[in-house]
């Protein structure tokens, strides 16, 4: 079977993997204009493009928990028919220096064909906002042949159970959130930009959607559920939400993985992080990548600060341990670090200051969109709930600025592009915007001698 037909088969299976039945067709009040895809595939021709707790990657629901929130007709099996058909097992905790098992019997999928089929499935919806890749402030565009850029995407994709059952987006029609179409909007965004590393939060369809789809596109994934996911309070939920980290197998090999349950004041919390040390196949250099999702809501600023401090402490130990335990690179020292996450914190919060002043030498990539290179975007999330309208900067890509340089950034949509009903909407699947940057390794001093 050729890759195009495999894509069709994969998507056909995906359409029936949502459990008890298909979603109803879009209501007559929904968008009627013909979908015009403004997106251009960017990213070159490389394909698809401190308490440490070892948790089971399935994040099994707590027995006896009473559902309290209704959810639309979007319930689905925790291990859907798509995942079963691809013989995809859930990801177990990986020990350092052990490569995660490559996916067996994976259906190979052509990313261009899959993108076209996503666009076809979404033809009744307006196109996503057009976003350009731009040069960061004060940085000359330069490609070093030995150090090709690494594309990194950060995105809180909005858990399906929370979107339909708990988050109360009062200006977003419930039909715009149905999983049968919203999953294609999410995949379309990913396929348009084709990151080498993908960091996601609020993933509650890992096993039945993202793991098999991303595996078919050449990615290796890892998932860590929240211990007490709020998704489990929603009727017909798809299991707990959590963080997911994907890397392209053709670009990286896995050196080590740590699954962390974040602590605050010596007590374990409900927030988690995945940390993976990867080795770039093209440069031989190592990169440590972390994904996390800190505590939400106002009033929890001190808890977020404590969680951030705990994560930074763990990252310092991981990056220096990996940096000093290898004999194939010089000089020894900390491995370059990228931290992606929904921090649920504005730049004025203490947790932001902790990261910006950390001994790890981290800088926020999206500050480089500003004219002075020192100001975060005005928003990365814009939503309307019963309590009012919220326009906030909550999401970040932190990077080791002495070891990595930012080459390009995906710009932020304008207020006009987002629209008066804000996010999510018929044309954008989450209440958070995706962030994306291309980073390159800086030349090491010993390699310049």
From TrEMBL:
Keyword Magnesium: yes
UniProt cross-references to InterPro entries, sorted A to Z: CCR4/nocturin_mRNA_transcr, Deadenylase_nocturnin, Endo/exonu/phosph_ase_sf, Endo/exonuclease/phosphatase
Keyword terms, alphabetized: Biological rhythms, Cytoplasm, Hydrolase, Magnesium, Metal-binding
Alphabetized CDD domains for the sequence: Deadenylase_nocturnin
Keyword Hydrolase among UniProt keywords: yes
Pfam families tied to this protein: Exo_endo_phos
Needed cofactors: Mg(2+)
Cited Gene3D superfamilies: Endonuclease/exonuclease/phosphatase
GO molecular function terms listed in the Swiss-Prot or TrEMBL record: metal ion binding; poly(A)-specific ribonuclease activity
Composition skew (Acidic residues), residue ranges: 94-106
UniProt-recorded name of the protein: Nocturnin
Organism of provenance: Gasterosteus aculeatus aculeatus (three-spined stickleback)
């Amino acid at each position: 079977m050729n890759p195009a037909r495999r894509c069709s088969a994969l998507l056909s299976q995906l359409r029936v993997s949502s459990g008890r039945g298909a979603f109803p067709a879009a209501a007559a009040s929904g968008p009627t204009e013909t979908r015009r895809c403004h997106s251009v595939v960017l990213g070159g021709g490389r394909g698809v493009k401190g308490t440490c707790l070892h948790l089971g990657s399935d994040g099994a629901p707590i027995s006896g928990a009473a559902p309290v929130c209704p959810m639309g007709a979007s319930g689905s099996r925790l291990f859907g028919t798509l995942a079963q058909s691809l013989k995809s097992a859930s990801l177990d905790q990986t020990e350092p220096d052990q490569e995660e098992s490559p996916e067996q019997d994976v259906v190979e999928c052509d990313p261009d064909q899959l993108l076209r089929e996503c666009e076809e499935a979404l033809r009744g919806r307006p196109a996503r906002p057009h976003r350009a890749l731009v040069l960061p402030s004060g940085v000359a565009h330069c490609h070093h042949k030995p150090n090709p850029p690494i594309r990194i995407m950060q995105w809180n994709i909005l858990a399906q159970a929370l979107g339909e059952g708990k988050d109360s987006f009062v200006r977003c029609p419930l039909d715009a959130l149905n999983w049968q179409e919203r999953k294609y909007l999410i995949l379309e965004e990913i396929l348009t930009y084709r990151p080498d590393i993908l960091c996601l939060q609020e993933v509650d369809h890992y096993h039945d959607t993202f793991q098999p789809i991303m595996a078919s596109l050449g990615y290796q994934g890892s998932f860590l559920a929240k211990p007490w996911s709020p998704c489990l309070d929603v009727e017909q939920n798809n299991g707990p939400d959590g963080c997911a980290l994907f890397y392209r197998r053709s670009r990286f090999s896995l050196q080590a993985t740590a699954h962390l349950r974040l602590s605050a004041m010596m007590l374990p919390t409900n927030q988690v992080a995945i940390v993976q040390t990867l080795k770039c196949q093209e440069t031989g250099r190592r990169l440590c990548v972390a994904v996390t999702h800190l505590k939400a809501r106002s009033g929890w600023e001190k808890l977020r600060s404590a969680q951030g401090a705990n994560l930074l402490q763990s990252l310092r130990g991981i990056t220096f341990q990996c940096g000093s335990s290898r004999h194939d690179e010089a000089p020894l020292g900390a491995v370059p670090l990228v931290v992606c996450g929904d921090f649920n914190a504005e730049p004025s919060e203490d947790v932001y200051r902790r990261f910006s002043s950390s001994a790890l030498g981290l800088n926020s990539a999206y500050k480089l969109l500003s004219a002075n290179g020192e100001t975060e975007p005005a928003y990365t999330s814009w939503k309307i709930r019963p309590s009012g309208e919220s326009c906030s900067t909550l999401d970040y890509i932190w990077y080791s600025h002495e070891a990595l340089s930012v080459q390009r950034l995906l710009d932020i949509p304008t207020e006009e592009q987002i629209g008066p009903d804000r996010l999510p909407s018929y044309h954008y699947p989450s209440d958070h915007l995706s962030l994306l940057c291309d980073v390159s390794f800086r030349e090491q001093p010993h390699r310049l001698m």
